[in-house]
Amino acid sequence: MATSTYLSNPVVTVNAVDLSDQCSGATVNQTFAQLSNTAFGDTAMKYVAGLQENSITLDLYWSTASTETYATLKSLVGTSTNVTIKQTSAAVSATNPLGTLTGGFLAELPVVYTVGELATCSVTFNGGTFAYTEA
Amino acid sequence: MALRIISARLGELGAIYEPHEGVNVQALIAGGFLEETHTAPAKSAKNKTKAPDAANTTQE
Lengths: 135, 60
Known about the structure:
Structural class of chain B: alpha+beta
Shape of chain A: globular
Oligomer: heterodimer
Strand order of the largest sheet of chain B: 1-2
Helix content of chain A: under 10%
Number of strands of chain A: 11
Order of helices and strands of chain A: EEEEEEHEEEEE
């Protein structure tokens, strides 16, 4: 069975800013509401797609240095923006698709400070449209 | 008014930035990634050409 292990080189951008070197994890959820159109005579449930409900969650180190995590996110809380992610830094292709969340809303900016550890923040961009492009 | 990239996280330093749809430009300016500029991007050097006979004209 083919599997892929991503050790170091996915590329993540938030509002067009490359935050790959601040990101340690990402979760992409591409979801459609499933609307039942099951009717009399059917012998099983049937569904059609409803509205998309997409999200991208990024685990970031909380760097307040110039043009890093804080500078990127501080003005985005309460607004919508674009987030992209691709598996490797190679050119976009069928085997290295670029996922783009357009119009994801950032509702909160939770920062975690722990003694003896690097500060982190886990941000989730909710809503918007999501699509993969291969070229 | 053009937008110039001042952080390599956004693109080539000094290049003029063309925002894509959905990008929050004000957040990029506030974060120190872009600056507004009134100057046009540098053009490549070109040799000025003169009229073919300008240097050889003699006055009588």
